[in-house]
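Figure 3 (text version): structure tokens given as input.
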């Protein structure tokens, strides 16, 4: 039973007048959008995710200037990163269920506008408390793109009878869209320090927040103009309203109109599903924990990598920011190349399995990435010496970026496919756990590196990554059994 049925009064309607989408002739149907328009939506949503995650990390190399300007300690200054990340994960718990009641676009536009508005506070305010509050509030509403985006892609590339005649393979298109989106939350954090380093080296550090004002404002406008509503229950409601108006028959209705939910119910009561997924679905918890660990190390890089480049090689602020290019290249190049390789491998497995698709096949890139990510950390650890070239740790970050994308490609694709009915809630759960972990790591990262030394601190992270290697192999073997026991998993296959 859905949350709509749990929390809302049910109105009896004649089932003969329940509207639905039978063909692609209905003007409200999102599936009738052109292929170009669908991919414009994918690109805009992914670019907005880059913007949102850049806001999280643009603080990193400005921390020294912020400490001096406001007279705060390193740990207090780092809260500017941690609060944003924590709220980025927490907000999705509340905002993603709203999208399941009131649509994707209202969450997108309202959330992004609030993010834009709160970028003015760190850009101009002299009150550090207000700055931290703005970071937390912006992160909370920025979460809409981190948790609802995958639901939009699932809406656009849904596999139904209406799309059977389309020349584009819907599952393949959905997989490509998810891969493009999955790299955006990682390119953003890598891009943030580059922007921060260049601005802090040549201009006042506050200009980086002004740049974020312009960028987030532009994305708000583009999303408002070019990203339509895609959630089918909301679109069916629009069709029902049109049918009632054009025919004069008030008996036409959409399912979502039968089960009405107030804003209070949408936010507070329906938010239980992402939390229930975390505590009652152990497969979700395992995937969330591993993706959280991988992403948390990237956020630790924001304090540890500048420390390595400054301490070992004497890099200035601008060069420390440019040191993240290796990570960005690893993330972006893998995102571009992996779809072809993964799809080719995936199709081969289907052929070997008598043409039958298995949802757990989505774990295959994860099973490669879990080896590559620790290798990248080992390279960073044992090439960070003054008598070795500075390309050593940067190459290690490149390798880690490759492993990261492979891990998240598999986890995102599996989550959307296995939990397709509750995609937004499942992704909100993942965002919550990984953001919680990502916000903690920068707080102790610098102290750990100072106490243990660069080599052993990074090696400790690599060894812990090695301990987690069996997770995707166990889920690959037993995932089908876990899905049968879960009340939340669902698949077309």
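Below: residues designed for each position.
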């Amino acid at each position: 039973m859905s949350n709509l049925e749990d929390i809302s009064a049910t109105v009896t309607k004649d089932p003969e007048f329940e509207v639905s989408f039978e063909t692609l002739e209905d003007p409200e149907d999102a599936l009738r959008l052109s292929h170009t328009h669908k991919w414009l939506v994918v690109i805009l949503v992914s670019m907005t995710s880059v913007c949102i995650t850049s806001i999280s990390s643009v603080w990193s190399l400005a921390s020294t200037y912020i400490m001096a300007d406001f007279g705060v300690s390193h740990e207090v200054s780092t809260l500017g990163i941690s609060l944003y990340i924590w709220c980025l994960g927490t907000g999705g718990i509340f905002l993603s269920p709203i999208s399941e009641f009131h649509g994707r676009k209202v969450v997108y536009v309202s959330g992004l506008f609030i993010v834009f508005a709160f970028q003015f506070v760190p850009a101009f305010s002299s009150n550090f408390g207000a700055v931290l509050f703005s970071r937390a509030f912006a992160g909370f509403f920025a979460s809409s793109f981190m948790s609802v985006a995958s639901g939009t892609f699932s809406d656009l590339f849904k596999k139904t009878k209406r799309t059977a005649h389309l020349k584009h393979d819907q599952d393949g298109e959905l997989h490509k869209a998810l891969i493009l989106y999955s790299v955006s939350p990682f390119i953003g954090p890598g891009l943030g320090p580059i922007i921060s380093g260049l601005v802090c080296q040549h201009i006042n550090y506050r200009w980086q927040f002004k740049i974020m004002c312009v960028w987030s404002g532009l994305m708000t406008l583009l999303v408002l103009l070019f990203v339509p509503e895609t959630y089918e229950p909301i679109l069916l409601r629009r069709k029902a309203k049109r049918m009632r108006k054009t025919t004069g028959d008030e008996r036409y209705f959409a399912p979502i109109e039968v089960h009405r939910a107030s804003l209070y119910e949408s936010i507070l009561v329906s938010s239980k599903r992402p939390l229930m997924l975390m505590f009652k679905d152990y497969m979700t918890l395992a995937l969330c924990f591993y993706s959280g660990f991988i992403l948390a190390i990237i956020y630790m890089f924001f304090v540890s990598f500048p420390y390595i480049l400054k301490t070992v090689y004497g890099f200035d602020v601008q060069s420390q920011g440019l040191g993240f290019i290796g990570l960005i290249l690893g993330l972006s190049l893998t995102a571009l190349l992996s779809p072809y390789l993964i799809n080719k491998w995936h199709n081969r497995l289907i052929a070997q399995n008598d043409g039958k698709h298995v949802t757990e096949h989505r774990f295959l890139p994860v099973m490669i990435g879990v080896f590559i990510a620790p290798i990248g950390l080992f390279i960073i650890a044992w090439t960070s010496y003054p008598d070795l070239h500075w390309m050593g740790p940067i190459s290690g970050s490149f390798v880690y970026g490759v492993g990261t994308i492979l891990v998240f490609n598999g986890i995102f694709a599996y989550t959307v496919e296995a939990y397709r009915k509750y995609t937004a809630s499942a992704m909100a759960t993942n965002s919550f756990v990984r953001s919680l972990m990502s916000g903690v790591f920068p707080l102790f990262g610098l102290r750990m590196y100072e106490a243990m030394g660069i080599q052993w601190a990074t090696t400790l992270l690599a060894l812990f990554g090695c301990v987690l290697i069996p997770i995707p192999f166990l889920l690959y073997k037993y995932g089908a059994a876990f899905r049968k026991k879960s009340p939340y998993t669902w698949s077309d296959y």
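The CA atoms of residues 64 and 203 lie 14 Å apart.
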